[in-house]
Amino acid sequence: AQKVTQAQTEISVVEKEDVTLDCVYETRDTTYYLFWYKQPPSGELVFLIRRNSFDEQNEISGRYSWNFQKSTSSFNFTITASQVVDSAVYFCAPAASGNTPLVFGKGTRLSVIA
Amino acid sequence: DVKVTQSSRYLVKRTGEKVFLECVQDMDHENMFWYRQDPGLGLRLIYFSYDVKMKEKGDIPEGYSVSREKKERFSLILESASTNQTSMYLCASSLDFLTDTQYFGPGTRLTVL
């Protein structure tokens, strides 16, 4: 079974600061997937990234970057030069390859203050 | 773009009522999911379906049932609503595998009085 820990319940930063959201997962599977979702105040979850466990390269998409460390079972998410629009709840979710559903973490609420 | 719609954004019901939450997706996805979201608890999976008329229990199925008579529609049923079912309910769908990316609807905030 997959387990995921997002230890940071809430984070508050000032606009333009960089911020890293932590995600630590547990799995016995050798093949699995890792996801990040954003839930803005409107409530609808927005897909950010899906990563295969065999692909350990870090990913960058604009101000967003993800650091996958298989050795420490972590898949951390960094926002560079944060903006007020980044204020949201962010969820990390692993999924085993044996065709089982995603397991969502409890989320990290990020507040970016102008 | 994938579109997942939910029948209501806000719903208020009374204890003991039968409640139907409807979810429709327009991208011919095989899988559909129902979650509830509560403060401090994140998203918890109630039920999912991997094909028409097929369903599987998630982590918290007690007090709920589901129906999937057509591929595009997945209904969550509260047979006798209780106050502890007051929550945000989120529907999602994914293409082929359960590990495929899930696309979410806007959510239904249900209040049971």
Q: Which regions of chain B are unreliable across 5 or more consecutive residues at pLDDT < 50?
A: none
The proportion of strand residues of chain B reads: over 45%
Structural class of chain B, by secondary structure, is mainly beta
Estimate the global geometry of chain B from the Cα principal axes. Answer: globular
Helical residue percent of chain A?
A: under 10%
Element order, helices and strands of chain A?
A: EEEEEEEEEEE
Oligomeric state of this protein? heterodimer
What gap, in angstroms, lies between the N and C termini of chain A? Answer: 41 Å
- Give the overall form of chain A: globular
- Count every beta strand of chain A, where a strand is a DSSP E run of 2 or more residues: 11
Largest sheet entry of chain A: 5 strands, mixed
- Mean pLDDT of chain A, to the nearest integer, reads 93
Distance between the termini of chain B: 37 Å
Strand arrangement within the widest β-sheet of chain A reads: 2-11-10-5-6
Number of helices in the DSSP assignment of chain A? 0
* Rounded mean pLDDT score of chain B: 95
Low-confidence stretches of chain A: none
The number of E-state strands of chain B comes to 11
The largest β sheet of chain B comes out as:
7 strands, mixed
In short:
Chain A is 0% helix and 52% strand. Chain A has 114 residues and is mainly beta. Chain A is globular and about 45 Å long.
Please give the structural blueprint.
The complex is a heterodimer of chains A (114) and B (113).
Chain A (H helix, E strand, L loop, with lengths): L2 E3 L4 E5 L4 E3 L2 E3 L5 E8 L6 E7 L6 E3 L2 E6 L4 E6 L8 E9 L11 E6 L1
Parallel strand pairs in A: 2-11
Antiparallel strand pairs in A: 1-4, 3-9, 5-6, 5-10, 7-8, 8-9, 10-11
Chain B lengths: L3 E3 L3 E4 L5 E7 L5 E8 L3 E10 L2 E4 L7 E6 L2 E6 L8 E8 L8 E2 L3 E5 L1
